[in-house]
Amino acid sequence: MSNKRPETKLVPVPSVNKIPERDVDKSPILEAQHLGIDFGGLTAVNEFNMAIGRTEIAGLIGPNGAGKTTVFNLLTKVYQPTRGTILLDGMDTHNMNTVQVNRAGIARTFQNIRLFDNLSVEDNVKIGMHNAIHSGVLSSVLRLPSYWREEKIAHERALELLSIFDMQDLAGAKAGSLPYGAQRRLEIVRALGTNPSLLLLDEPAAGMNPSETAELMENIVKIRDTFQIAILLIEHDMSLVMGICEGICVLNFGQIIAKGTPTEIQNNPEVIKAYLGGGKEA
Asked: Is the pLDDT score of 256 beyond 60?
């Protein structure tokens, strides 16, 4: 039985970009306009234009070295763009840093897992919830009632988020003791703890076996539907990308060579030549 879902119709927004038809009555959660970055004399990304609808699952694919992670670093302000504009919920992020962009609504995971191995699973999730925790240093040190109220809320919220992946029973385990696939899932849960409106997933299925990947596909859709957020993922597993992504953007040498639905991308001669037909990883 195919994992592929019915294809979503993409419609133009007031720019060169397209978003899912169901989101067209609302402004895109993210819009990159003429985005680019140079490192010395090298142009790593140029004229990157993309919009993401408020409940869209979008994909960013391309050969190794195409510039995909660089785009993620631009969107999250790890790198400041050399040129172009990034609008997050209509707000220009030009003067923002990584912390400010995270508070404004973008959360991400990484190619290489970045967990606090010696902390518990629950504590890793709580670290991701820093945006929602308001008790000050004094109340924490003195263990005032406000601290315990915040702690109770954080505990319940962490278990609720872990339950998305049926990991609530692992709350007390050390993060570093988890199997690889479970560590990948924990990183996604921690990102959700920041209460994002846009979740960036950098190769979430890396290292997973086929059954884990199939479960991940279902959970990505579940996350979108439960939290009504947008998700942008970089992924080399084409069955995952074509199975759940609605709009796909293809990068090659830092330039967009195609955008469209899964069917449009699979049938695009330039994409086939540069990527799909070559069987290279994203």
From this structure: yes
Question: Considering the domain 10-105+196-278, what is its CATH architecture?
Answer: 3-Layer(aba) Sandwich (3.40)
Distance CA 173, CA 261 (A): 41
Write down how long the chain is: 282
Computed from CA positions of residues 64, 66, 68, 73, in that sequence, does the dihedral angle turn out positive or negative?
positive
The reported pLDDT for the residue numbered 76 is 96
Residue 72: name the closest of 103, 48, 89, 100 by CA.
48
What is the arithmetic mean of pLDDT over 31-57?
Answer: 95
Q: Are 259 and 250 in contact (CB under 8 A)?
A: yes
Note the pLDDT of residue 33.
94
Question: Domain map of the chain by residue range?
Answer: 10-105+196-278, 117-184
Q: How confident is the prediction for the chain on average, in pLDDT?
A: 88
pLDDT, average across residues 73-89: 96
The full 3-state SS of the chain, as one line of letters, equals: CCCCCCCCCEEECCCCCEEEHHHCCCCCCEEEEEEEEEECCEEEEEEEEEEECCCCEEEEECCCCCCHHHHHHHHCCCCCCCEEEEEECCEECCCCCHHHHHHHCEEECCCCCCCCCCCEHHHHHHHHCHHHCCCCHHHHHCCCHHHHHHHHHHHHHHHHHHHHHCCHHHCCCEHHHCCHHHHHHHHHHHHHCCCCCEEEEECCCCCCCHHHHHHHHHHHHHHHHHHCCEEEEECCCHHHHHHHCCEEEEEECCEEEEEECHHHHHCCHHHHHHCHHHCCCC
